[in-house]
Design brief:
This protein has 247 residues and is an alpha/beta fold. The chain folds into two domains: 133 residues, Response regulator (Rossmann fold); 101 residues, LytTr DNA-binding domain (OB fold (Dihydrolipoamide Acetyltransferase, E2P)), CATH 2.40.50. It is built from seven helices and 17 strands. The longest helix is centred in the middle third of the chain and has 31 residues.
Length: 247
């Protein structure tokens, strides 16, 4: 369901538009309205609608001033007005569409579908980010991590990760079954989401699974040897913090 808010200086126009929306746009739900830009500003911030139907000319100034106060816009905008001259200015605000009064039902339905497509895509991306964030939360009992790859998301048991190596803006994950997985996350992002009691960044280019250590060799910073035989230098500035893990 797409939540909508209506701003118009005439109450009758609001009632008419809400009636049309309820009748011809079944996926829309009007959650509020106002004839005043000050009230609209406060309510939009509070209600956080997906879509705002916005009249241009208001008693206390045009609605572009309202949009300026609400920047950055976290909702889509459809202009509904009798003043066609504002269409070009509306484009500069990246509004979803422009409806002239009296509202044409077919034009409204076309814009409604456009809104559904755009808002649904945006919500899908947000939900994916929440999914990744939630699964990657180190406080979760289930020891999995969601790794974004070019194909989508790959879910990896943390215990199967031996090390992660930086590759510029991406990273390579090396696992116990000797797979090399390329991820679109950089090594800094992995450092932030991996549990600190299991993973340690021994070098700018390497994060290791502490449970996969076989040996530590002394040196300026020293070297770690992992269970797959990989030998990795420990940065001298990270040496003390690394050795403190084993006290």
């Amino acid at each position: 369901m797409i939540s909508c808010y209506i701003v118009d200086d005439e109450k009758n126009n609001i009632k008419l538009l809400e009636k049309i929306i309820n009748e011809f746009c079944p996926h829309f739900k009007v959650i509020g309205n106002s004839t005043d830009v000050v009230v609209a500003f406060n309510q939009i911030n509070h209600l956080k609608p997906d879509l705002v139907f916005l009249d241009v000319v208001m008693p206390l100034g045009d609605s572009f001033g309202l949009l300026d106060r609400l920047l950055p816009l976290n909702f889509e905008v459809i202009m509904v007005t009798a003043h066609e001259k504002f269409a070009i200015k509306a484009i500069s605000y990246d509004v979803l569409g422009y409806l002239l009064k009296p509202v044409n039902i077919k034009e409204l339905q076309d814009l409604a579908q456009k809104a559904i497509d755009k808002i649904s895509n945006k919500k899908s991306v947000e939900n994916l980010n929440i999914l990744v964030s939630g699964i990657n939360n180190s406080k979760l009992i289930h020891p999995n991590i969601a790794v974004p790859t070019i194909e989508g998301l790959l879910f990896i048991d943390l215990e199967n990760i031996i090390r992660i190596e930086a590759g510029g803006s991406y990273s390579n994950i090396f696992t116990t079954d000797r797979k090399k997985i390329m991820s679109s996350k950089n090594i800094k992002e992995f450092e932030e989401i991996l549990p600190k009691n299991k993973f340690f960044r021994v070098h700018n280019s390497h994060i290791i699974n502490i449970n996969k250590l076989s040996k530590y060799e002394k040196g300026r910073g020293g070297f770690v040897i992992l269970e797959d035989g990989t030998k990795i230098e420990v940065a001298s500035r990270r040496k003390i913090d690394f050795l403190n893990l084993f006290k």
